[in-house]
Amino acid sequence: xxxxxxxxxxxxxxxxxxxxxxxxxxxxxxxxxxxxxxxxxxxxxxxxxxxxxxxxxxxxxxxxxxxxxxxxxxxxxxxxxxxxxxxxxxxxxxxxxxxxxxxxxxxxxxxxxxxxxxxxxxxxxxxxxxxxxxxxxxxxxxxxxxxxxxxxxxxxxxxxxxxxxxxxxxxxxxxxxxxxxxxxxxxxxxxxxxxxxxxxxxxxxxxxxxxxxxxxxxxxxxxxxxxxxxxxxxxxxxxxxxxxxxxxxxxxxxxxxxxxxxxxxxxx
Length: 268
Known about the structure:
Elements lengths: L10 E3 L2 E3 L3 E4 L6 H11 L3 E5 L11 H10 L2 E5 L6 H15 L3 E4 L12 H13 L3 E6 L3 H9 L6 E2 L13 H10 L5 E3 L5 H9 L4 E4 L1 H4 L4 H21 L25
Parallel strand pairs: 3-4, 3-10, 4-5, 6-7, 7-8, 9-10
Antiparallel strand pairs: 1-2
Helix pairs in contact: 1-2, 1-9, 3-4, 7-9
């Protein structure tokens, strides 16, 4: 949940601090109870909710919506399923009215096969929503120019994918992801495509600020245990990045110093 007191190494988004760097989705669970247990195990402060999947005004998904309200986690509504800028803007406006929050995870999908974002529509929608006071967290690709345009229209956070949603392929384009980290001094959250805690740890070791995922936890054999595994991996990856990873070398280097050690001559 959001913290008002000082937090060691907080994740800061739009001026608000969070103790956890793990953002968890609430779709695809086999039951509301599994979702609830997974949120607790994840130790997350932010959960995402698709307005089209859970609409409290229409009475469906009441148990899910009620638990999210009671969990203390910050709600991040998303515009999943939208295919045009206009559709995403309208859904975001509806979510602000229904959930009383200006935060939104902005998704505008341009391809039904790999669910790749429509970069042009995404930038258009982000600019309009920011002009209307929204705090936009855009789901985007790792394209450097697209990310720059999103920053130009006012986004203060970027959420590039690691690989297509739900594939579990991990970080497919490390070169471009590293380029984003080196170029932009804003929070970068890997969103989509991670399937294993080791992949999340790797992203955090690269210097990314957080991880957002859903499928890898929700469709695991034991979702709460997997949520805990991801939480531990994210924390470990962040600690490793903060500590400073050793540089890779082309040749071996002894870990035990040889200076001062006795040198034994073989007698003939």
